Amino acid sequence: MGREVENEADSDKYHEEKRNDHDVGQMFINKWLDIKDTVNNWCEAQVIDLTETKILVHYKGWKSKFDEWIKIADVERIAVLNSYTDRPRKYGTLSMKVGERCDVLDSQDKWCIASIIDVNTVREQCKVHYPGWSDRYDEWIDSDSYRMAPLYRFTPEPENERLQRQNRCRPQSTFTATSSHEENFRNLLKAKHGWEIAEMENDGNCLFRSISHQVYGNPEFHTLVREKCVEYMESESSFFRNYIIGDNQDYEDYCKNMRRDGIWGDNVEIQCMSEIYDRPVEVFAYQAEPMKTYRRPSQQGSKPPIRLSYHFQSHYNSVIHPRNHHFVISNEQPGEIEDRCLKWSALRSRQALDQAISLSDVEATELEGMRIALTHSRGEFEGQQSIDFDKAVHESVLVFEQTRKEKLQKDIAKAKEISLDDSSDLELKKALQQSLEDTFTLTSDVLSVPDVESEVLQRVIKETRSDTSESWPEPVRHCHKNLGFSLELCVEAFSIFGTQSNVSDDIVISNMTNYMLESSNRLKIPVIPVDEQESS
């Protein structure tokens, strides 16, 4: 017990102190408690009857024959619920309104669908009914119990309801992208940065899958990412509720709905996760530069950005560098970063200040620094909210298409003025002409991506008019003569990678080789590494 009881007086005094330490409050029927059974094991139990001095308790999951009367004064056997029994993690919150459906862990520890049929706000309990079961199985459960969770959090959602919900909740857009837009978007990121788009399932979880993939290298932690995101939104409700239409109840309903699997996330959730992971989030949409950037709260250190690709109809994918992505993956266990952020959020809350939580000088300084950084980050976020992102992306694509179309048509016209037929190297001229026609001709609904400047194009044309291959651009000559790629493919690859400024021929050759390996099935000779090329 931690102290020696010498006589009855001391015993009574000890019991009184114990009672005060573990004050279970007023007794009432349906109250849940921790009860020590007859073999000294602590169990969850519910009061099913009482007198002025005794309570009749029923042990959860046990048969009624084990019900027993216990003296209220016997504080050695009575304690506040979950003082000695395990309290599993609670998932989500409920509005606790009559008629609300939810998941409930029944007395046999099985998750079932139930409906709230009564609410006692004074005792903070609700009565649930299990559809298809007799009323005698109805039970009162504490409103904050781990045994209650949002609907379909642990029970399977019927397929027809899932499809209806996803179609209803999926953001609608009047803009669409063609397959050419999508393909060229990928080629552009590859050509400009060496990045690839990692496809996420189009199931309503794509944003959270993408964030999980960026942070942990695996999209399968999307459920945890979503849960922690909503917890943070609730903790920081004083800010985020300003971006949800309606009152406080509407915001609570929004958060409750956002917890559900398959609900699309968007701007608010991205800002939220930028704060959680303390990393900027860059969103790319059919261009090589980000259309939108969410700044990280902290300005200290150099944390790599989270990169997402945005596609019309509010679909997100993860943008990675295939060779370097593993360097930016967190080495912490999923949940550690998020819980640490939630802790700091709690310290920032008004409730924490009201409770006069004592902080060390270091903690207080760090907390103030985070508050200032958050204010700056959120100021930028507020300034972006008037932008219709889909519309902005669509207009940007149209302008880019028109500008590129006009420029490339001029380049083609200029190229045609040069007498390609006078050259003795007909194979090269034919390949170049075909490449120009295939690569640079645009229609009104196709976004072309190779970023070819006029002077570079003229360089290719000028140098390929020579009688000998020695006058070809070095990357073209090397890939065609030494590596065995077709001339047409070499010219095509050079038109993509040979335009990069301040890039050596070796790097251009390496980029061209990777591109052509993916594009051609006709390669006969293995690729020679750059260092071996130099030594040769």
From TrEMBL:
- Presence of the UniProt keyword Hydrolase in the record: yes
Catalytic activity as recorded in UniProt:
Thiol-dependent hydrolysis of ester, thioester, amide, peptide and isopeptide bonds formed by the C-terminal Gly of ubiquitin (a 76-residue protein attached to proteins as an intracellular targeting signal)
What processes does the entry annotate via GO biological process terms? protein deubiquitination; proteolysis; regulation of DNA-templated transcription
Q: Which SUPFAM superfamilies match?
A: Chromo domain-like (SSF54160), Cysteine proteinases (SSF54001)
Q: Does the keyword Mitochondrion apply?
A: no
CDD domains, sorted: MBT_PHF20L1-like, OTU_OTUD5-like
Q: Which residue ranges does the record assign to the OTU domain?
A: 195-322
Q: Which UniProt keywords apply?
A: Hydrolase, Protease, Ubl conjugation pathway
- Which GO terms of the molecular function aspect are on file? cysteine-type deubiquitinase activity; K63-linked deubiquitinase activity
GO CC, any one term: nucleus
Under which EC number(s) is this enzyme classified?
3.4.19.12
Q: Which domain of life, per UniProt?
A: Eukaryota
Which residue spans adopt a coiled-coil conformation according to this UniProt entry?
none
Q: Which PANTHER family match?
A: OTU DOMAIN CONTAINING PROTEIN (PTHR12419), OTU DOMAIN-CONTAINING PROTEIN 5 (PTHR12419:SF4)
For this chain, the family text in UniProt reads: Belongs to the peptidase C85 family.
Identification of the protein by name: ubiquitinyl hydrolase 1
Source taxonomy:
Eukaryota, Metazoa, Ecdysozoa, Arthropoda, Crustacea
